[in-house]
Amino acid sequence: MGSAGPKYDRQPLYYGGKHQTTNETFQTTDPSCDRPLADICKADKSSVDAAISSAQRAFPKWSSTPAMERSRILLRAVALLRQRNDELALIETHDTGKPFSETSTVDVITGTDVLEYYANLVASGGLNGETTQLRPDAWVYTTKAPLGVCAGIGAWNYPIQIALWKSAPCLAAGNCMVYKPSEFTPLHALKLAEIYTEAGVPPGVFNVVQGAGDVGGMLTSHPSIAKVSFTGQVSTGSKVASSAVAGMKYVTMELGGKSPCIILPDAQLENAVDGAMMANFFSTGQVCTNGTRVFVPQSMLKAFEKRLLEKMELVRPGDVMDPNTNFGPLVSKVHSEKVKEYIRHGIETDKAKLLYGGLGKPELAKGIDTNGFWVKPTIFTNCTDSMKITTDEIFGPVLCILPYSDSGPDYLSTLVRRANATPMGLAAGVFTTNIDMGHKVVAQLEAGITWVNTWGESPAEMPVGGWKMSGLGVENGRKGIENWVQNKSTLVEMGGSVATAFSKL
After folding, report:
1. Among 272, 407, 281, 423, CA closest to 339
2. What domains sit in the chain, N to C, each tagged with a CATH number?
3. What are the residue ranges of helices labelled H in 124-158?
4. How far is CA 202 from the centre of its chain?
5. Which residues are catalytic?
6. Whole-prediction pTM
7. pLDDT tens per residue, range 204-219
8. Exposed, middle or buried, 36 (CB in 10 Å: 0-12/13-18/19+)?
């Protein structure tokens, strides 16, 4: 792309089933070359109010549409998403900087999987309640009702996946949504809204308003919003949750982490190294579940470091459209500066041993624009629990090796205590050849998402959510639909008379 102008047309808002424009705009930038991609219409209060009003008008009909019919409509959207996978993946690559090899095989597909899962779930009784015979002549039954108009606030690292993870259970349950994408990666949202409309989702059921945190604040505090689903960093999520709960809104918060990746002494070296690399360098480290604290036993440390360094040549930065590229730039200038500052702090202040990478940009092939927001994949070793790089969420490709003593009878309890010594609890994982030990360790880890002998996979069937400061509620799986409904219990007395305390003596 040259410097002549934006690659995409001006992006409007979307509500009431139509494109809607505003006068004020902002730009989204291609991270691989730091050039503008498109002008984005910025929502103001009147457009946010209008989007919410359109959702309110749509809610009575959509919520009373039989679940089977909602499912058919959403499954048509699934077919369109799969048909246009590469087109949507290209948009994600332009907007996020992630290699096309990743966006075309992960981002759109995994989001669409969740939409298909929930469409099938509600069609097959997933919204059914329970019945209990209390007495021979009395029954209790429960029903699930949609919440109303919900706000979805997305993050920039998995734009269309997150939009689908939020809108799929929301719409399947009979709610309507006003969705605000991240201002750094907004291009997917309009396409998703158009696909929903093409599939037959009625006007007003899924709406898009773009902008920064102030637009999110308008949604969060709006009295007509019944629920807020937010994905982002812990500090922002705390503010969003406080604002939402003050209005007695339902909330789902999927926030950050500082997750432990534990290599047990019996782990296969190759698996341990591959797992640690996936837990730190996939998606250029911009994954909330990253296992950035890699605990390695002293008995394996030298071999682990040696093999890790050998395999770092397999991290291939380059042309993001080259199918061999598996490492892209960071998403924005402000984020790249933040990550570089952490690397500098690790070197100069924490005094961790720099094993690989560091400051500066990775070596790129001739002809590749070096103006993008590139950072080197970086490895620190001999890290301690108190270093800033091991306590703060960096959200970049920075792997910290924390050695631990694996001698003595109590080493495992000390290791688990160190792993849990963080206010966050999003994810954790263990690598071992002893599956019994894997289960034993995972059971003690204070995290909502855990893996044994793998890292990062979050299929539609798997509920995911954080403990401690890492979130509230879960997304995906059968449990995920519960976060988009409210329950009603009804007791029916069939005995023909009403029990009373006010009878004649």
Report:
1. 281
2. 13-255+470-489 (3.40.605.10), 260-452 (3.40.309.10)
3. none
4. 26
5. 166, 254, 288, 475
6. 0.96
7. 999 999 999 999 999 9
8. middle
